[in-house]
């Protein structure tokens, strides 16, 4: 089977990296994989130690590599039309990646969710005359890369439809999946001692305002932990510190990679506040929801298309995005639900994610399309 060069993003997800899961699943199918990164300080989860050890930074290639420079005509038109990077910086990065990919014997390049990563991989692929696939987010961010990739992966059906309007290249619906072996059965002993967990994945002001106004409507005290990167938590801490809210609110930063798995059972529900403005970066929130379903953590989420595609009325509770009053109502009603009712929802959500959103299904689809080129 083809050896795949993965051009990976700069940051892992809150919980176990969905890209690491995908790479390991592709390897289990028989693919050799070589990961490449723009940043030589890339962080990896412990389970992805193999990737961390074998990951090569583009800085390891000659800075001004003349490798295959005479083949630059193959990517000249693409570099002129794309808008992700300037001509010379992109050509230099593309030549560096091409040098590494040919040295390592890669027969296909695959990249995730970034316009400049995609552009660099496309330049390298054109220089080497090997296929390239891209995980798409939206037509605007990928720009001309949509036309240059051999195929594009869409993580939602709506994204597939939107991207297909922007290109004649194949768009395949390949949603991110959880590693089913890590969740062999639903955890039955669920005795949460905290109310809500909020995963902070953007610094969107609308999300912050939605939460604050919702909390102001509660007369009784509730507990909520907000977890995320320090840079994202800063706006939350500043705003919440200025309010006289009678709630137990904690901001938790610098989580270990396994924090989500270890602490999910402490909470009565996960809250996902994504708004339309953060929908384009929906890959990580979507994966966080799927992991919550696999971990038996009930979910309250905004009614964005990607959330509706994952959850239905029996596996989670949805509220209109940005509607603080609706969020407060859903949170309050959730706290009043019986254990038997919540356990039925947990079981249904677990079965749903294990049926529709597993890594074995995702990797099989991706491998099939790569091998067909």
UniProtKB/TrEMBL annotation:
SUPFAM superfamilies: UDP-Glycosyltransferase/glycogen phosphorylase. Transmembrane segments: none annotated. It comes from the Bacteria. InterPro entries: Glyco_trans_1. Residues 196-342 form the Glycosyl transferase family domain. GO terms for molecular function: glycosyltransferase activity. Coiled coil: none annotated. This is Glycosyl transferase family 1 domain-containing protein. It comes from Photobacterium proteolyticum.
